[in-house]
Amino acid sequence: MNIAPQRVVTLHYVLSDAQGQILDDSRARARPLEYLHGHDNIMAGLERELEGHAPGDRLNVTLPPQDAYGERNEKLVQSFGRSAFPQQELTPGMRFQTPGDDGPQIVTVLEVSDDEVLVDTNHPLAGQTLSYALEVLSVREANRAELAKGHPLPDDVTPAQVEDRKLS
């Protein structure tokens, strides 16, 4: 079965930056990526490259910033009052996940003073060309519950636990 919309895909990947430094390796974590194709579960550029591939296929994909996490936007580097951060200890490089207009976003602390905190709300990989070494492990039809949810169900959840039930 080939990768196409409405199918659950399981794959291993190695993510590297333009200098060849490995940023993430699903095999090293012993945790393959599982996603629902055609439902914006992964970057559009990566999904486009995977379309039509089958289990056993291996491919290398390089994505420029606009097809990955976007270009850096310096307007997303902002100062906030120190009181906006509940943590007493803040150091440059710390990352937080906060709610954003388009869903959760990662905030990186750049500088800390007594009164203000300078943060970067760009994705940490924004502006980078990324390379993926991919191996497709499996492809299957998504079930009704997965299609309704827009993502694969965890292994410990059965479709019956989330599917709508009509009352008689």
UniProtKB/TrEMBL annotation:
Reaction equations catalysed = [protein]-peptidylproline (omega=180) = [protein]-peptidylproline (omega=0)
Q: What InterPro entries does its record include?
A: PPIase_dom_sf, PPIase_FKBP_dom
Region entry Disordered: which residue ranges? 147-168
Record keywords: Metal-binding included? no
Taking the record's annotation, the residue ranges forming a coiled coil are: none
Keyword set, alphabetical order: Chaperone, Cytoplasm, Isomerase, Rotamase
Function, as annotated: Also involved in hydrogenase metallocenter assembly, probably by participating in the nickel insertion step. This function in hydrogenase biosynthesis requires chaperone activity and the presence of the metal-binding domain, but not PPIase activity.
- Family to which the UniProt record says this protein belongs: Belongs to the FKBP-type PPIase family.
Q: What is this protein called?
A: Peptidyl-prolyl cis-trans isomerase
